[in-house]
Amino acid sequence: MEEMTAEIKKLIAREDEALLQQKVDELYPADLAEVLVDTTEEETEVLVDLIEEEKLAHILAEVDYEVEKKLLKFLSNNRLTYILDEMYSDDVVDLLGALNIGQTKEFLTLMKQEEAEQIQHLLGYDEESAGGRMTTEYIAMKQDKTVAESIQKLRDIAPEAEMIYYIYVVDEKQELTGVLSMRELIAASPEKKVKDIMHEQVITVNLSLDQEEVAQIISKYDLLAVPVVNRQGLLLGIITFDDILDVIEEEATEDMHKMAGNVEVDVEHEGEVINGVIRRLPWLIILLFASLLSANVLEFFEDVLNTVVILTFFMPTLAGTGGNAATQSLAVVVRGLAIGDIKSKEILGYLWNELKVGVLIALSCGLIIGLVAFIWQGNYMLGTVVGLAMIGNIITATVIGTAMPFIINYFGADPAVAAGPFITTLIDVFGYFIYFSLAKLFINYL
Amino acid sequence: MEEMTAEIKKLIAREDEALLQQKVDELYPADLAEVLVDTTEEETEVLVDLIEEEKLAHILAEVDYEVEKKLLKFLSNNRLTYILDEMYSDDVVDLLGALNIGQTKEFLTLMKQEEAEQIQHLLGYDEESAGGRMTTEYIAMKQDKTVAESIQKLRDIAPEAEMIYYIYVVDEKQELTGVLSMRELIAASPEKKVKDIMHEQVITVNLSLDQEEVAQIISKYDLLAVPVVNRQGLLLGIITFDDILDVIEEEATEDMHKMAGNVEVDVEHEGEVINGVIRRLPWLIILLFASLLSANVLEFFEDVLNTVVILTFFMPTLAGTGGNAATQSLAVVVRGLAIGDIKSKEILGYLWNELKVGVLIALSCGLIIGLVAFIWQGNYMLGTVVGLAMIGNIITATVIGTAMPFIINYFGADPAVAAGPFITTLIDVFGYFIYFSLAKLFINYL
């Protein structure tokens, strides 16, 4: 792709319009979208003029806010009217969602009244809910239609709909009564009625369902699309698999960032220095103050530290290993809860299992560090204290690392937030307390 | 779902076959697959007898190895022959891939010769490559067929194919020459030839492409399926979007686990204690030894530690904050590289940007911890040393956290592996070195 971008930039510089037009026509919208991330304002202007409206509609559905702004600058109202008409409603909603209210209103005036009203309606739903993700370009049939009639209707409206492979069957009140796939429609005998071949049991999602759960349903049942209904069972829209692919990627990214302690999530681009600072600093400062708890524990044991300075040498290893063990347990539970492989009810079984793993790991690491301390400093009591501290530390870490996500999940928060940094800071405190308590106990032999 | 499982278990206990059969018929394969995760051997036997073969084929395609084994135990060779015939080739490959060679051979003898040969062929590809993921139940047409003939052919073979919405066009040598969607086929006039309406530019993937890259392509171009070709351009199979949903989830899970330092990845189930230990202990031990580097740094500064014990109090905060800052930078780059939002060439721009963020964060945190140290211990020189150490520490952490994934990526390894624990261990070493070097410099004023 980087070569493609370079080549296009070269053609623009050379003002070779003929070859440029050919390249632009050859490229898929998704590719052009990538090229447009790296073009200057001047280059963008040249390109926008060469790309046909239908392709621009696809491109605008792909790109993020930055590129969107760049593109909109060079589109006349005339072209924009055509483009908005070409775009599916969920993509228009995404596009307008990024603009301010004044701009949004201006855009809505460019659309047909009926469509503008629909879009305005969709803009009212929470962005991350089924309502905010759905498109209204689905195919619905009345149940008394025959297979032949349905195929004819499909042929007529195919270019308009975002997903034509599922046909939803509704009654007069627009209530969803069944579904059938194009595969079934095409294999059925033409004179049969739709209601005789449809499936009456339909997997649906409610308007307000969170997008992550919508993704889980689409993925579990391997659907191309899922219909969105309100409480009365009226069909309002559909969510297609390709939007769900994006959701799954987004949510995985979000979880990973939360685990790393980034407050907000977005891939950062150059020039966003202040945003980067604002995003990260709050957590760092909270954690900084949390870690001062460890400083208090150390002050509490100042006499021990004063007497036996070599105890300090093993602080990083104890704290580090405890934190690592906790993070390992944590990752298993956080991800398991996120993709639904672990149920929140299973906490006790999980804790028990993790505890067994934790004890074995603790014994192994305790033995190793104990031997290292003994051999290095030639002090068998030091080895014993460091080894025992490691054992206590890892067992505590495993229990906290396993239990914490369940607890946070129970209170309705996202377990990924709890993760990594916060827990390791907490475990430091316990770890140092165990270590220096043991040391104090055996201080006369050290 | 948990209620559904409980209800079914109750019906089995009550031996209410009629109601049980009704429930089983009502449930989707994906739901039955979930129920079967929690059933005992006896319950499984009862259920398997009640589920029809077609549904069992879908269930076997969904469940993981544990459940698979449980189910296979209660299936006669007769039923199995029917089920294997019903399953798509990629799912059969997954199923057989989990068995040992003897069992695999036994299964292959149950299949039709032609299919068995095909499966054997597929089993030869790397599990995580396009070849290992593809199915051979696609729809291919010759380019001279008319639209009407094609629709008729579709009607006949629809039940066999895994994906009938993309029709691939091949020449006599089975070389892929074009593609068209069922949507386009159905909208075209019946007498037209396939070659006149097909797209000649087809997005394909090579047999050996990694599944993560296949996922990126399907997601980028919003495809329902992508054709798999060999170097000669011969069409060998397709990979459908639903398999890709699984890949995206798997890969995100894998990345998260790698970042947490779990060597191998799988949601852990009860009774897998030894596996859990084997999976986690190696990394922990490697990191334990790595952290002893910090111990060496501390020993090197033993005299400083002996003189000013209060320096110890700030060790956890310095190390912790440095580690957290590094992890934040890391998460942005690792995830960005994984989903393709960051290109490996962009390292310098990124580093520069992160450095700016890092300096601002470092100054803020340095000021805070410096003030805390000064106020707490009433020693302005201590405040200065701790504050300066924090600044140096965070800047180092940011640079290492940003650069490391790029470097690891450059050498062809997965940047997620490098992550979290390893880098924080490394940063501890630098952090302590900076801290105690500064302390040594100012030792007379502390």
UniProtKB/TrEMBL annotation, chains A, B:
Subcellular location, record wording: Cell membrane; Membrane
Keyword Transmembrane: yes
Species name: Acetohalobium arabaticum (strain ATCC 49924 / DSM 5501 / Z-7288)
Transmembrane segments: 281-301, 307-334, 355-376, 382-404, 416-438
Protein's recorded name: Magnesium transporter MgtE
GO cellular component, one term: plasma membrane
Membrane topology field: Multi-pass membrane protein
GO molecular function: magnesium ion transmembrane transporter activity; metal ion binding
